[in-house]
Every structure is written in C-alpha cells, then in structure tokens.
Amino acid sequence: MQKVIPTLKISNEERSQAFYVEALGFQVDWEHRFEPGYPVFMQISREGDVLYLTAHEGDCQPGGLVHFLVDDIDRFYETLPQGKLEVNPPYEMVEGVRMVRISDPDGNELRFMNAKK
C-alpha cells in the first residue's frame, strides 16, 4: 500500500491530462476547484500508484522527480505509445536496476524502474 502521495506542479490541465491519461495510462480519480475557472487540484492513479497534480500557485515547484516500481520494465516500455512520447529504451543506471526516464510537459521527471532483485 502506498503511504505517501507525491504532488507535481502542472501549468496546463488539458496538456497534463493528455500526457498522464492518454500517453501513460493513468486515470483521473477526482478533481477539485474552489470555484469554476479556478486552478485544478486532481488525483490520478495507475496500477495502485497515486499522484496529485496541482495548478495552484504555492503548492510546489515544477521539476519534481517520482520513481515508480514496475514488474517488467521492458514490457512497460513496449506498451508506451511511441508516437505520443519521446522515450529512450530501458537502460541500467545502477547494477540490477533498469529504468525508463520520462519528462512530463512541465519538466517533472518520472522514472519507471524494476526493483533490484
């Protein structure tokens, strides 16, 4: 069970939803705005991993980094829509840990990786 929820800063809700939902397979669980037309704060999830995305000033700075553990990094890479993302193939950064690095439209970095066995 995930016990923390990372929050990433976004600047454009539509662009971020297209990236996270259409390209990476997350789903939007809920959205909150104080009033119509105000910045969004939303929860997204994918296979048990949860993130908050916020367009609110002061919540956090762009340029965050989140690591996701996946069962099979090569299979994960093969499922990515290559036309929607610029992604290099998995590589080994640390002995026994293979990963794929992806940057979102706001410069937040997502690292999908196999856990060291």
Automatic annotation (TrEMBL):
<keyword id="KW-0046">Antibiotic resistance</keyword>
<comment type="similarity">
    <text>Belongs to the bleomycin resistance protein family.</text>
</comment>
<feature type="domain" description="VOC">
    <location>
        <begin position="1"/>
        <end position="115"/>
    </location>
</feature>
<dbReference type="InterPro" id="IPR037523">
    <property type="entry name" value="VOC_core"/>
</dbReference>
<dbReference type="Pfam" id="PF19581">
    <property type="entry name" value="Glyoxalase_7"/>
</dbReference>
<dbReference type="GO" id="GO:0046677">
    <property type="term" value="P:response to antibiotic"/>
</dbReference>
<dbReference type="InterPro" id="IPR029068">
    <property type="entry name" value="Glyas_Bleomycin-R_OHBP_Dase"/>
</dbReference>
<dbReference type="InterPro" id="IPR000335">
    <property type="entry name" value="Bleomycin-R"/>
</dbReference>
<protein>
    <recommendedName>
        <fullName>Bleomycin resistance protein</fullName>
    </recommendedName>
</protein>
